[in-house]
Amino acid sequence: MTLKAEEILNILKNSLGDALIEQEIKTYSLGALRKRECSEVWIKIDRGAFRKAVEEIFKLDYPHLHFITGEDVGENLEVIYSFGLFHGQPGKEISVVIKLALPKSELVLPTITDLMMGAETNEREIREMLGVEFEGLKKKRHLFLPDDWPEGKYPWRRDEFGVDDMIKHTHKSVKEIRGGKE
Amino acid sequence: MGKLYSFKRSLWVFHASGGSCNGCDIEIIATLTPRYDAERFGIKLVGSPRHADVLLVTGAIPRDFADKLRRIYDQMSDPKAVVVVGNCGTSGGLFYDSYNLVGPIDEIIPVDVYVPGCPPRPEAIIDGVVKAWLKIEKLEKQLEGGE
Amino acid sequence: MTKSQYYIPIGPIHPALKEPIRVEAKVEGEKIVEVDVKRGFAHRGIEYMGMKRNAIQALYLSERICGICSISHPYAFVVGSEKALGIEAPPRAQYIRTIIAELERIHSHILWLGVVAHEVGFDSLLFWTWKGREKVLDVLELISGNRINYSMYMIGGVRRDLKESHIKALKEMIDYYRIFNQEMKNLFLADPVYKARTRGVAQLSKEMALKVNAVGPTARAAGLRMDIRQDIPYDAYADIEVRGIVPQDIVGEVYGDAYDATLVRIYEIDQSVDIIEYCIDNLPEGKIMAIPNYVVLLSKIKRTKGEGIGAHEAPRGEVIHYFKYDGTRDGPAVWKVVAPSYNNINSWAPLLLGAEVADIPVVVAYIDPCMCCNDRIAVVRDSSGKIVDSTTLHRMAVEKTMRIKKELGVKE
C-alpha cells in the first residue's frame, strides 16, 4: 500500500508538531510524449526532533537511503538527508528530504546505523568531510581520505578549516589566468 | 624512426593504476582481445614488477600512491622503460586543482613514452609500447657494447 | 585448527591488473571469520573541484568519474540540473538520451560477463565475450566519435543528432545482439559446471539487501523489485513501462546468489535491445537542445536559484546527484555524487563471512565493483607475514572449478 506526498506530509506534521520549521511539496512532470507526475517532500526540522522524524519514516515503509550531504553556510552547517519510500512500486516512489541546521559550536547528531546498517558509509564520509560527530557510530577510521590526513582540515568547509591551501595546480597557466586569487 | 629491427624476444609489461577513472585501463585490456591482439607481437602482461621490462602507468597520482610508484619503479631491473597512458598522467588532465593529487607522473619517476588521449585508442597504446620496446633494445645494445 | 591471518587482494580484472582495494579478512583453515574493507586510495576530490567550476565544466568532470559507466553520471547530472533550474529538454533529445544510455548498459553487462568468466576459469569465454562487445563500441563511435567518454549530453538536451546512417547501423546491431545473447544464455546459464560453481556462492537474502542499502542488479538478484526506471520514470522510460527484472519472474524462485546475478544481467541485455528498438521506431522530430547558446545557458544558471535531485539507473545500480544553485555563480554551490558501488560494497562484509577463500574472486566480482567510483587497495598477507598475491588467489579459484568439473564427470 502506498501513500501520496500530502499524506506523508500530514503524518510528519502530526508527529513533529512545532519542530517542523519549513515544508514544501515539489512536483515535476517528467517524460517525453506522455508526462508523468513525480513528487518530493522537502522539510526543514529542528535538530532535536531528528531521531523522531527518522523513526516515523521507518514506520511507513523500510526506506532506501539516497544520500547524506551538507553545506557550510557561515554560522551553521546545514545537513541534508534523503530517503526513498515505497521503492519497488512502479511510478510511486516518493523521496523525503530532511534538512537540519547545526551550529558550528555543537556538531553532534545521533546515528541511524542501528536502524540501517548501510548508513555507516555515508556517516563516515560526512564525519571526515565536514567534521560532524555521530554518537553511537562504531567504526571511525578514515574512509576516503588517507590515514595520515592532517587534523582539522575538512574539504567541504568554506572557513578556516577548508583545504584551499592544500591544492596543487598542475598547469602553471591556471594560477596565472585566475590572477592568483585562489 | 630508424630501421625497424626484428624483435629478438617477447616483452613483459606490468600495469600500475594510480587513481585513474579506469577508461585507460579498459582500453589496455582491450588491446589483448582478439580485435587488436597485442599478444601476436609477443607482448604479455605479468603480475610482478620484478619480471617486467616495461611499466604502464595510468591516472593522476593521489598522495599516498607516490611512494608505492617509486618502489615499483625501483624493483624493476635494467633495461627498463616507462610508458604513461592517458592525459591524467601526462599533464594532470581534467584534475588540475585537486587537494589530493600530486600531479603529472614525470615529477615522480622518469618517463620514456607519453600516449595522450582521454582515453587513447588501443592502436595508439600498442604504438606507444612498441616505441618503448625499440628504446629498450637500443639500451640493451649499449649495455652489451659498453661492457 | 590453527588460525591464520589473510589479507586479501580483491578486484583484479586480469591477473596482472592491480586495482587498489584493501579487504582484511581473518581466516580459519578455508573459511573466513572476520572482514573489514578500507577504501580511499584513489580519492580525487571531484565534488570539491566541481563546486569551483561552472556547470558545463562540472558536467565534463562528472563524465570522468568512471570510465565504464561513463554516461550514467552525466545523465543524472542533466536530469537533476533540469529539475533544479526549470529547463525542459525537447522530446527528440530525451529519446536520444535513452538510446545512448541503453547502449552503454549492453557494453557494461558484456564486460562483466567476461570478467566473471575469467574469475571462474573460463578464459576463452573472456576473449569471446569481449570480441562481441566491439560491435556496440563501433556503433557508439559512429554516433558520438569516441569509444569511451562520449560527451553527448548537455543541460537541456543533447549535442549531436542521430542521422539515417546511424539508424541503419543501430538496426544491424540489434539483429546481431539478439543472436549473440541467445548464445550467451546457452554458454552461461545452461552449462552445468558454471551452475555448480556459482549456485550458493555469495548468497544475499532480501532482508540483508535492504539493510545494507544494496542497489541495482545486486538487489534485484536478491528478489527486491528496485529499479529507478520503474519507480521514478523519466525521459523515454516514462512512455515505455519498464519493469525491473527479478529471478522470480523468469524461473519462479530466487536464491540471491551469483547464478541469479548472471541471470538478471543477461536478461537485462535483452531488455535493452528491446528498448532501443522501440525508441528508434518512435523517434519524434524536432530540436535537440532547449537553449543552444552556451553563453545564454550559463547566464540563466547564474540568475536561478534552485535545488534538485537527479537519479538514473546505471548498469551497476542507482546513481544520484544532488544540486543546489544559489543564484550567485554560474555553477553548483553544493554538489553530491553517490555512485552505485558506494553502497554495494557494504555487501562484501556479510557475503564473505563463512565463504571459502577460493570463492573470494567470485564474491568480489558479483557486485560488479566500479573501482574508480570508489577506490580501494588490496593486499594479502598470511599469518607469517608473507604476502599472498592475487595470482595465487585466482589460481585457487580456478582449481575449485576443475574439482567441480571432475565431480560432475564433464569431459574436456
Core attributes:
heterotrimer; A: 182 residues; alpha/beta; Beta Polymerase, domain 2; 2 domains; two-stranded parallel sheet; 32% strand; B: 147 residues; Rossmann fold; five-stranded parallel β-sheet; 4 helices; 33% helix; globular
Structural description of this entry:
The complex is a heterotrimer of chains A (182), B (147) and C (412). By secondary structure, chain A is of the alpha/beta class. Chain A folds into two domains: 5-143, Beta Polymerase, domain 2, CATH 3.30.460.80; 145-182, no CATH class. In chain A, 23% of the residues lie in helices and 32% in strands. Chain A has helices at 5-16, 50-60, 119-130, 172-177, and strands spanning 20-30, 36-45, 64-73, 76-85, 94-103, 108-110, 133-135, 168-169. A five-stranded mixed beta sheet of chain A has the order 1-2-5-4-3, with helices on one face. Chain A has a two-stranded parallel sheet with strand order 6-7. With 147 residues, chain B is of the alpha/beta class. Chain B has one domain (5-146): Rossmann fold (3-Layer(aba) Sandwich). Chain B has helices spanning 23-30, 66-75, 87-91, 122-146; strands at 11-17, 43-45, 54-58, 81-85, 97-98, 113-115. A five-stranded parallel beta sheet of chain B has the order 2-1-3-4-6. In chain B, strand 1 (11-17), helix 1 and strand 2 (43-45) form a beta-alpha-beta unit. The relative contact order of chain B is 0.20. Chain C has 412 residues and is α+β, with helices and mostly antiparallel strands. Chain C has two domains: 5-42 and 350-408, no CATH class; 53-342, Cytochrome-c3 Hydrogenase, chain B (Orthogonal Bundle), CATH 1.10.645.10. Helices cover 50% and strands 13% of the residues of chain C. In chain C, the strands form three sheets. A three-stranded antiparallel beta sheet of chain C has the order 1-3-4. A three-stranded antiparallel beta sheet of chain C has the order 7-8-9. The longest helix of chain C has 30 residues, at 91-120. The relative contact order of chain C is 0.20. Residues 9-18 and 374-387 of chain C have low confidence and may be disordered. Chains A and C meet through strand 2, strand 3, strand 4 and helix 3 of A and helix 4, strand 7, strand 8 and strand 9 of C.
